[in-house]
Amino acid sequence: MESDGKPGNDEGTMTDELEELKEELETQTRLAEDRLNRLKYLQADFDNYRKWSQKEKEAIIALANENLIKDLLVILDDFDQALPSLEMEQNREGMQMVQKKMVKVLKEYGLQPIDDVGKKFDPQFHEVVYKVRSTDEANTILENLGKGYQLRSKVIRPSKVKIAEHITDGEGEING
Amino acid sequence: MGKEKIIGIDLGTSNSEAAVMLGGKPTIIPSAEGATVAGKMFPSYVAFTPDGQLLVGEPARRQAVSNPEGTVTAAKRKMGTDHIYRIYGKEYTPQQVSSYILQKIKRDAEAFLGETVTKAVITVPAYFNDNQRTATKDAGKIAGLDVVRLVNEPTAASMAYGLDRTGEYKILVFDLGGGTLDVTIMEFGGGTFSVLATSGDTQLGGTDMDAAVYEWIAAEFQKLEGIDIRKDKMAVNRVKEAAEKAKIELSNVIETEINLPYVSATQAGPKHLSMKLSRAKLEQLVEPIIKRCLIPFETALKDANLTKNDIQKVILVGGPTRMPVVQKFI
Question: Which of B96, B112, B151, B160 is most buried, by the most CB atoms less than 10 A from its CB?
């Protein structure tokens, strides 16, 4: 039996199949590439997130006590207010000892008061509440109206201060 | 490399905030200085000192009293206008001033994320016109940010509550901030939001409530002790902080105690401030402020040709909206 000239058809079918397979291969290769790229993006995202998460964890550990210490600052303020009012020397001394103890504990956690009176105003550490005309150099801190604190290098509460007004330059223009 | 992150910025009149999606969750970007006492990240203050320093955000706010002529606040209100700030012989447009705030946000975001940030979405009030919108985009450009989109503030709030998915409804966004109230009525349908009406009050907010509480404490103390603590600058600071704290606390408890030992002194000796403030009393104190919210609320409904029964969703934005009395009012 003869195959009545079908080899051509077989060849055609095979070519078609080959074309289909080629297309399929291309599609699958593209898909694989896309997925690989997506995987790379996700991997990079995950790596970044892991690094960020680690950094954040360190920051949380480093400043874990910040909120608690911030809340305790009002008690330090109370000590500062109370001490000058205590008349009996013995009472004052006792209270001072309690204050010192508390300050010492907080210092171990990195808390330190911001020095200010006599220094030049610095907005990184101080907040001006008001200014007065003075013979002192402009922007010198004359009075502390609310003690500021920093926890290690971070200012957790700026000092509220009264500063000397610049009066040497023809009374200074104020238009804000 | 992962895909570049796009940060979202709320460029506000008094305060600005920024956030980014991390691990699928929106995360607030902290400023280098940390949050202010009121929990704000970037006060919208820009200052130029006489010796040529540029200060932005919290440091600029801290020196505002001593350098009013060199400090710019609320530049947002001048966006899209021809206004020029003249400071120590130099001129600045509102866009430039805003760009300093955006630059600071960009810088702090980069420090927080540990990667370069060049793309941002910025929110603008729904009532901003084309000029104001272009000015906001320009501010971003000056700051080195490609502003991929401007989103209306009430739309952003609605999206945050997932109201951008399915359905059709009318939304009222009540945004009560520290100093301003914005009321927006929008319609959501077919995947888009359209603004029907906006109204507001630029001089109404949480700070008015803090002031009312502070005044009450001062008046009560004067009644009890005969001393006007408003004249004692040191005491004023402590009382103001305590007033704000009490107001916030009363959103969760029904009574709070304000204790300020040694708040003042007379010749007779030290004076302590100790009083209780109930939520009911607070509500009574802030009632006149809450009542003022009614006008923009009604104006917006009227302008949109709607009644309150037509509104299907209400979105509350801003710290003072956490107060039960504000929620009750709405």
Answer: B112
Q: Best of B31, B37, B46, B66 to disrupt the A interface by mutation (most A CBs within 10 Å)?
A: B66
SS (H, E, C) B53-88: CEEECHHHHHCCCCCHHHEEECHHHHCCCCCCEEEC
Whether A41 sits inside 8 A of B261 (CB atoms) is no
Query: Is A131 in Cβ contact with B65 (below 8 Å)?
Result: yes
B304 secondary structure, DSSP code: T
Q: Can you list the alpha helix ranges (DSSP code H) found in chain B?
A: 58-62, 94-113, 130-142, 153-160, 206-225, 233-249, 279-303, 324-329
pLDDT tens by residue, B158-217: 999 888 888 899 999 999 987 889 999 999 988 899 999 999 998 888 889 999 999 999
Residue numbers in B near A159 (CB within 8 A): none
| pLDDT for the residue numbered A116 | 83
Of the listed ranges A59-73, B104-118, B151-165, B213-227, the one predicted with least confidence: A59-73
pTM (global) more than 0.90: no
Burial B268-303 (b: 16+ CB within 10 A, else e): eebbbbebebebeebbebbeebbeebeebbebbbee
In whole angstroms, give the CA distance from residue A83 to residue A99.
9
Give me the pLDDT at residue A165, please.
83
- Chain B contact set for A81 (CB, 8 A): 261-263
A156–B34 CB contact, under 8 Å: yes
B181-189 and B313-317 strand pairing: unpaired
- Better pLDDT: B243 or A59: B243
CA–CA distance, B250 with B41 (Å, rounded to integer): 23
